[in-house]
What does this fold into?
Amino acid sequence: MLLSFVLASFLLSLSPGPDNVFVLLHSAVHGRKAGLLVVLGLCSGLLFHTAAVALGLAALLAASAMAFTVLKLIGAAYLLYLAWGAWNAPAGLGKAATTEALSPLKTYLRGVVMNVTNPKVAIFFLAFLPQFVDAERGDVPMQIALLGLLFGLTALFTFGVIAWFAARFGAVFQRSERAHIVLNRTAAVVFTGLAARLAFSSR
It folds into this structure.
């Protein structure tokens, strides 16, 4: 069962979604270090959702239409904020122009906020993790916590690989000011699309 869980976690982390798209774009625009920090932030957010499932908070979110709506609108607003920043980012040669305003902590927190404010992740965990829990083994919350940690480690590896290769691709664009502008504007459009998708999503 554990092997099945790891395989499912890997495939889910690899499938196109807001998190890995965010990692890809952030790494391409801001470089490998920033991309890996965002990955750490996203995986920290997964631990938050794991705790929510273990404590029953995710069930409350799934049952409350108002809570779901409020959280998804906060997430959509944050994505629009990132889109605005990407669209207006200064163009310049090299990574300095794109990373100057992003401290490691701020970059890490971007990943945390991106993940925590997506209520669909909490509901997904609520539906996914319990499938691999064996009540006969006792301590269900602890089993959920361990499964969530394992999912986070799988996502850390998968997203880390995406960040690594996206940064190499983005380095090509850093050599051209025009290409740099195109990359920033593309990121802004994608973030806007993700914001719209989240804002109009349903449970």
